[in-house]
Structures are given as C-alpha cells and as structure tokens.
Amino acid sequence: MALDAVLAVLVVGVAVWTVAARDTFAAVVGFVAFGLLVALIWVRLAAPDVALTEAALGSGLTGGLLLGASTRLGRTEAEATGELPGGLLQFAAATVSVLVSAGLIALVLLLPEPAPTLAPKVAANIAATGLQNPVTAVLMAYRAIDTLLEVMVLLLALVGMWSLAPDHLWGGAPGRREPADPDGVLTFVAQVLLPVGILVAIHIFWVGSVAPGGEFQGATIFAAMWILATMAGLANTPPVMRRSLRLLLIAGPAVFFAIGLAGFAIAGAFLAYPADYAKLLILIIEIPLTLSIATTLALLVAGPPEQEPQR
Amino acid sequence: MSIAILYGLCSAVLVGLGLFALITHPQPLRKILAFNLIGSGVFLLFGVVAHNGAAAGFGGDPVPQALVITGLVVAFASTALAVALLLRLFQETGRATLQSDD
Amino acid sequence: MSLALDALTFLAVAAGGFFFLAGTVGLLRFPDTLSRLHALTKADNLGLGLIVLGLLFQMEDPFAALKLVAVWLLTLLAGGAVTQLIAHAALGGRSAGVTT
C-alpha cells in the first residue's frame, strides 16, 4: 500500500511536470517516464498484459513518435508559447477540469459493491478456446470483433497518413533515409539488439496463449526492432507502392475476416470457431495478424512518404 | 483505502490535468500529448473497474483489460495520424499553430 | 538455508538501492552533461546488477533466473549506447550517427 501511494504520487507528479514543462522536448521525455510508471500501476492492478502494452506502445512507440515530431518542429514550438490564452480562459479551463476530476472522483468512490464482473463467464468458457490467458481469449474469441475492427482502424490510420503525402512524393518510401555509419554506436546496438529483440518478440507473442503477452505486444517489439534498423541506416523503409508491402499489411485482417466469415458456415455465426479447432484457428489468425500489425505500427511511426519514388 | 480507490483518484486527477492542458496549451503537439494524458487516465479508470471485478481466480476482470489493450492501440493510431497532420501543416505553412492568420 | 539466502538478497538489493541513490544524486547535482551521464550509467548499471543478483537468490526456476540476467545485460547495452549518443549530441553532434 505504501508502494502504491508513492507510485500514485509519482505518476501525478510526472504528469504535472509534463503539462508544466516549457520545452516541448522535455515534456515528451516526461511523457515517456510517465508511461513507464503507468505500466507499473498496471502491474499493481493485476493486469500484466496491459502493462506490457503500455510500456511498449503507450510509452515506447508513442514516445518515439512524439520525440521525432518535437525535434522536427523545433523552434516553432518555443515561439508558439507566446500564444498562451488569456487569464479568463485559463481560469475557465481550470474550473472545467476540476469539475470533471471531481465528478470522476465521485464516481470512483461510488463504484458499486460488489462490482459487476464478466470474469466468471470468461472462466467458465475459456476451456473452449484452448487458451489459458484470459485476456488473449477475450481479444481473440469472445470479443474478436473488437480486435478485427481495431486492426481495420490501424489500417485506416495508415491510409489517412499516406494520403498526406505531396503529389510528387506519392509512391515513395516513408520517412527520411538515415545515413548508415558503420562505426556508429547506433549501428552497433542495432546489430546486437536485432536478433535478440526479434527472439523476444516471438517469445512474447508465443506465450500470449498461456501467460501475459500476445500479438499486440509481440508486434510492437517487432515494429520497434524494424524502426531501430531504419534509424541506424541498416535498412530503408519500403516504398508504399510496393506490392509485397501492401500484401503484408492486409494479410492479417484478410485472414481474420475470411475465418470470421467462414464461421457462418462451420459454427453458425460471424467469428465463431468450432470447438475442436478453436485454438488452431486462433493461431492461424494470429500469425499473419501479428506481422500485419507490426508492419502497420512501424509505418505509422515512419510517417507519410517523404522520399522521391523511383520510376 | 484500497489500491483500487487510490488509483481511481489518480486516474481522475490525470483526466482533469490532461483536459486543462488540452484547452490551454497553444502548441498542437502539446495538445496531442495532453490528449494522451487524458487517455491514460481513462484507461486507468477501466483498470480500476477491472481490478474491482476480480473473480473466478483472475486478478482482474479480463474483459475491460482486453478493451484497454484495444484502446491503447487505437490511441496510438490516432496519435500517429494527428502527428502526421501536424507535420504536414508545418511543411505547408512553416508554422505549427492552430491560430488563423491575422 | 533460506534465511541465509534471504540475508544475501537483502544485502545485495540494499547495496543496489544505494548505488541507484548515488547515481540519482549525481544526476541531479553534477554540473555538466558528461559528468551527469558518467554518474548515472556507472552507478545505475552496478545498482541494477546488484538488484538482479539479489533476486537471483530467490529464483527457483533457472529459466526465470536467466531472463533476469538477460534483462540486466540488455539494460547495460541500451544504457551504454544511449549514453554514447547523448554524449555525442552534447558535444555538438560530431558523429555522423547522431544527426538527429
């Protein structure tokens, strides 16, 4: 309990610092630290699957994305601090925020006792999925439609991002080409870390059926390894016109959707799995899905096409 | 005070803090950051509800936990799209501000 | 036997915590970037190593113990590399690898 109190105070303190920091770059660094501390809270709340996702995606990839953006914006960020709103607006904003917080605090204190829960239902039906990790079972079986729609959202976000490319760059590779430096520290780290990281990603993905982990956490680590390789200049991002890239992006959602449709014929409902083959079907979905999610996440970090297409 | 209530209070403060920053920060990137703070607060509230729903041998209700994982991924996707829009705005105008030209 | 192991764990983790504290004090008190980095990485890498060592005494599964050691080694690699990159950037980016 003392640990929890310290953690809660630290998280709020870092959040205040993130909001109050004058320099945007410093604020983003604060946000990364904030994300890691929030991951610890998730562990304390008995949600290790969420903790892994928060640390890898909420803190790591989001942090990298925002750091990149803040270095690109650079000076304009500092100039824009002069446009602070007037005292009246600040006061109104503070009032609204305090009211929202107070309402949420009231809700937290009035949470029903005993709490409504779906855990017994998950426990009663988990055997049918062949999985032992309840969170993966929810993601891949009971609420598979959420997961399917979520990967569609990821793809749509990528399409939206690519459509921001200027006309003359359409079809080119996303992001800037980083120069390779064979003696550089980053190159060394990338070369040492890539095989280890890929192994960790496969491990996290594979244990997701029985222990904390799963396709999103594994895919995030895959994506991070690929981003590291491009940052070190060991690999360039693929041109967005490349057919194999497009296939990789849609393979996961397509297989997911196809098996979901097949559920009408073999199990009587969309995304229903026949009991004997549930685990096999989930695995058939998960492998291409992990590769598609990893590619999408990495390309979302890379940004819209910025390199001249080769014609 | 249970840890659920403690972290519930923490998440409520985070939402308020994020909302304040979202309204008052003039820089769009800081607004995106604030939006992520609000998101963290909302997700933690889900986590508290999940923790209260611990039953059947699970440390928490797995359904809200799975929803939070979905939410984290979607929050990342929207953040990435927002950052791309912002950088494009900067490329076009040389400024990164939401103020209209005077 | 387990009492002796607990005592070893306590000693190692306490020593690790001390080094973390020393590293953090250095980070906050030292005047320039390079000496701050020096304090941070030296002390924290040793501190983490001691904490991992302390936890090893409590491990029954050798595979889990191996994972702990892997965590320490990966942190050493990442910490060392990031320190190098920050130091290069602090010196004015005089290396082709740190143009960002």
Which features would summarize this protein structure in a list?
heterotrimer; B: about 100 residues; mainly alpha; Helix Hairpins; 3 helices; elongated; C: about 100 residues; about 0% strand; disordered C terminus
Compute the number of structural domains of chain A: 3
Multimeric organization: heterotrimer
- What is the terminal-to-terminal distance of chain B? 53 Å
The largest sheet of chain B is: none
User: What does the average pLDDT of chain B come to?
Assistant: 87
Low-confidence stretches of chain A: none
**Percentage of residues in DSSP E strands of chain B:** under 5%
Q: What is the string of helix and strand elements of chain A?
A: HHHHHHHHHHHH
Alpha-carbon distance between the two ends of chain A:
63 Å
Give the CATH topology of chain B.
Answer: Helix Hairpins
Q: Quick one: how many beta strands of chain A?
A: 0
Can you give a write-up of this model?
The complex is a heterotrimer of chains A (311), B (102) and C (100). Chain A is mainly alpha-helical. Chain A folds into three domains: 1-74; 85-116; 117-311, no CATH class. Chain A has twelve helices and no strands. Chain A has helices at 2-20, 24-44, 48-73, 75-80, 87-109, 119-129, 134-142, 144-162, 185-207, 215-231, 243-266, 278-302. The longest helix of chain A has 26 residues, at 48-73. Chain A is globular. The N and C termini of chain A lie far apart (63 Å). The model of chain A has no long low-confidence stretch (mean pLDDT 86). With 102 residues, chain B is mainly alpha-helical. Chain B has a single domain (3-93), classed as Helix Hairpins (Orthogonal Bundle). Chain B contains three helices and no strands. The longest helix of chain B is centred in the last third of the chain and has 32 residues, at 62-93. Chain B starts with a helix and ends in a 9-residue tail after the last helix. The mean pLDDT of chain B is 87. With 100 residues, chain C is mainly alpha-helical. Chain C has one domain. Chain C is 81% helix and 0% strand. In chain C, helix 1 packs antiparallel against helix 2 and helix 2 (33-56) runs antiparallel to helix 3. The longest helix of chain C is centred in the last third of the chain and has 29 residues, at 62-90. Chain C is elongated. Classes of the chains: A mainly alpha (311), B mainly alpha (102), C mainly alpha (100). Chains in contact: A-B, A-C. At the A-B interface, helix 1, helix 2, helix 3, helix 4 and helix 5 of A face helix 1, helix 2 and helix 3 of B.
